[in-house]
Specification:
The chain is an alpha+beta fold and about 200 residues long. It folds into two domains: about 5-125, no CATH class; about 130-180. It is about 60% helix and about 15% strand. The longest helix is centred in the N-terminal third of the chain and has 26 residues, at about 5-30. The chain is elongated, with a radius of gyration of 25 Å. It starts with a helix and ends in an 18-residue tail after the last strand.
């Protein structure tokens, strides 16, 4: 192992540990995906470092990046947030494996990738707006009535509604809703009424 790769390996391991464990797992508590991100990152780093040592063209390396992306995105059990972490793990392995000859650039890009995911997925930003597919057991022909019904069901302020499907036979609607949760009302502490004394 060259000196450049000996430096790149701990940088890569530290970056993926921060991303998968300190950021992703602490926020979303999914051990399976955190492990998958670490395994993917280390695997891509090893393959890209080997290709760099064998002087394989960068076109093949980016071809590997594309193939792995397509294979993982065929799964329906991953949210768009998880896709972001997946691509970042993939990019970290590729950047640290190929960019080991330029340590300053490698470290700067790794910090940029991890910092971007930390900020983009911060709870103060991510929880402002949510998305959900809702199947209603009624058909609304008026958009305002539709928004009012969704706000009542979700207990939230609806920002945008897009009708995906309307079934007039079963009287159902499938809608894509973007909404902002309303803050929970603050309940006043209950006062205990003293029992009346009897003589």
């Amino acid at each position: 192992m060259s000196l450049a790769l000996a430096l790149a390996l701990p940088v890569d391991l530290f970056a993926i540990t921060v991303l998968a464990c300190a950021i992703y797992y602490r926020r979303h508590h999914r051990t399976d995906l955190a492990l998958a991100y670490v395994a993917l990152n280390v695997g891509v780093f090893a393959v890209s470092a080997l290709m760099l040592a064998q002087q394989v063209s960068l076109g093949l390396a980016f071809g590997l990046f594309g193939v792995l992306s397509i294979l993982r995105l065929r799964s329906d059990q991953i949210s768009q947030r998880d896709v972001g972490y997946y691509f970042t793990s993939l990019a970290l392995g590729l950047v640290n494996g190929i960019g080991s000859s330029q340590p300053a650039v490698m470290i700067a890009v790794s910090v940029l990738l991890v910092a971007t995911m930390y900020v983009a997925d911060h709870p103060k930003l991510a929880n402002r707006s949510r998305q959900r597919m809702v199947v209603l057991d009624t058909v609304h022909r008026d958009e305002e009535r539709l928004k009012e019904d969704l706000e009542w069901r979700l207990g939230a302020t609806v920002r945008k509604v897009e009708v995906i499907d309307t079934d007039y036979v079963r009287e159902t609607m499938t809608v894509d809703v973007r909404f902002q949760p309303r803050p929970a009302p603050v309940r006043a502490p209950e006062r205990t009424v003293p029992l009346a004394r009897t003589r």
